[in-house]
Design brief:
There is one protein chain. Helices cover 43% and strands 14% of the residues. By secondary structure, it is α/β, with parallel strands linked by helices. It has a domain at 8-35 and 51-110 and 249-281 and 324-457: Rossmann fold (3-Layer(aba) Sandwich), CATH 3.40.50. Strand 4 (240-241) and strand 5 (244-245) form a beta hairpin. Helix 8 (172-189) crosses helix 11. It starts with 7 loop residues before the first strand and ends with a helix.
Length: 458
Amino acid sequence: MALPEHMLETVKNDPLIGEIEAIQDGQSVDYWSFKNATRRKGAHALIHYPAMMVPSLQGKLLDAIKKASPTVSEVLDPFVGSGTILVEAMCRGFNFTGLDINPLAALACLAKSGPYYVEAFEQKCFEVCATIRADSGRRHYVKFENQEKWFDDEISRMISRIARGIENEQKLWARRLFWLALAKVVRTSCNSRMSTYKLHIRKDLTAERANPIDVFENVLDGFLANLQQQYEVWSAADLLQGGRYRQSVQVKLGDSRALLSEEGLAKKFDVVMTSPPYGDNTTTIPYGQYSYLPLKWIPLDDIAQDIDPALLSNAYAVDSASLGGSKRKATERGSELVNNYQSARTFSNTMPVNSSEFKRFASFFADLDDCAEKIANVTKAGGYQTWTIGNRRIGGQRVPMEEILGEMLERRGVDTVGHIRRTIHAKKMAARNSVSATMSQETILLARKRQQSAVLSG
């Protein structure tokens, strides 16, 4: 049966291409968009996070990679976010390593990785809720700049009661789940609009708000249901031993560019599966803004030791520290970028070198180039990479992101073997903003690192 070319575009013959063709054989032309697969279940449902990947899509790609290369065992996501790849890798019994600069992403992944002591957690939920209900204190758990802007005083006091109750819990694994639940409460109870991930004051601050303690208890009910569902699935697949995942999971907090250095990460990986942070307006997708208020209420030591407090110095600090967040030496870095890559050179010719658009373009792709090199260094010879990337726009023009990334990878001995193009059916941002159309499509770049002999000869 002939397959529609726009489902899978083959660039190079590879076993992975055959496995993907087998998956999509007989499916609709829009198969990879997974239009009806937006409802998240089990561990996937523990947090809503900006620009989340589709679990079933990434799971199908992992299945195809496993069939194409049956010995794979080590999976890396260098921009792990809320942990979609983490959960899908765990579903298949892989060892997993996830990296992210955002402390809330690290918390979500640590909570999702277990342990899955569901009965014990149910008892702890009962106890923490009883403690919170019995707390009549009026003391604020935290005080931070502009707190009164984002939280009514009484809301702050009720969230404080929740935080004090969580702090009394002795087990770190349980506290992490509670803190993740509190993150949902903070997002619901703050004065920011829920229609966007950015921090924007609600239009109507007088509207009645749900009691944060009631919200917390409802969130915990949902957590229990989702944890139980995930526990049953993984127990049936013999992936748990005493509630703990049988294989290895590592979650590291920090800049991937540093963590992927030789000192930061010793092992090499069979599979790199990721979606780099990207934007489609004048700022990157606001992971940091989304996380800023929840993280003000969560003790950072319960996430990781020695977290740089500068990451929470303002609502934009995490985003500024992420790919493309700093415009320092953007013009010089852009010059090197266009000298090295034809597709970057062609696109950059559409904008003045000293324009803000060029600096945004140069800053992001120079950072991505640095990451591509380090990711290639930790990918095993013959190992696969999949990159889910959006149709980003700068200055109203679509950036040829897959072409630029493909050139970056090829330079490091990683060859593109194919592309899958898909429509984004579920998205929170508007179809347009004041700058241009927002992202409506994604491309999944499929690549494989050359065997050592081929790299040397190239």
